[in-house]
Amino acid sequence: MRYTLIKLLVFCPIRQREIWELELGRTLKREEFVYVIRLSPEDHKTGSATGLSREFLLPEVLTATLDEWLNVWRVRVTTNYQLVFISLGSKRHSELIGQPLLE
């Protein structure tokens, strides 16, 4: 997951909060060969002031990375939501596994 997050930050000018709140099928969608992030005005910091949406077409170099994260690793953690990135917990805090990332 860390590798995917770092790669996303390198190629996409997106805020931390927007990453934490990415939802598969709503704000992150897979199109034919690439992923697209579409944020409605309610989903980003300046949206309430501008009323504008934001859209990021992610480069193809991210497609395989996101596919692996979502289809191999993310599916192993059962949750009640479709957040793309979740807490993986730790030995000390295994109760955090699958929880949303916090600020």
Protein architecture, described:
- The protein is of the alpha+beta class and 103 residues long.
- It has one domain.
- 29% of the residues lie in helices and 12% in strands.
- Strands 1-2-3 form a three-stranded antiparallel β-sheet, with no helix packed on it.
- A hairpin with a 4-residue loop joins strand 1 and strand 2.
- It is globular and about 45 Å long.
Summarize the structure.
By secondary structure, the chain is an alpha+beta fold. Helices cover 29% and strands 12% of the residues. It has one domain.
Chain-wise SSE layout:
Blueprint: H1 2-11, H2 16-20, E1 28-30, E2 35-39, H3 47-50, E3 54-57, H4 63-73
Antiparallel strand pairs: 1-2, 2-3
Structural class: alpha+beta
Count of beta strands: 3
Shape label: globular
Oligomer: single chain
**Whole-number count of domains:** 1
Largest sheet: 3 strands, antiparallel
How far from one another are the termini? Answer: 17 Å
Order of helices and strands: HHEEHEH
**Low-pLDDT regions:** none
Strand order within the widest sheet?
Answer: 1-2-3
Helix content: 25-40%
Radius of gyration based on Cα positions: 14 Å
Strand content: 5-15%
Q: What average pLDDT do the residues reach? A: 86
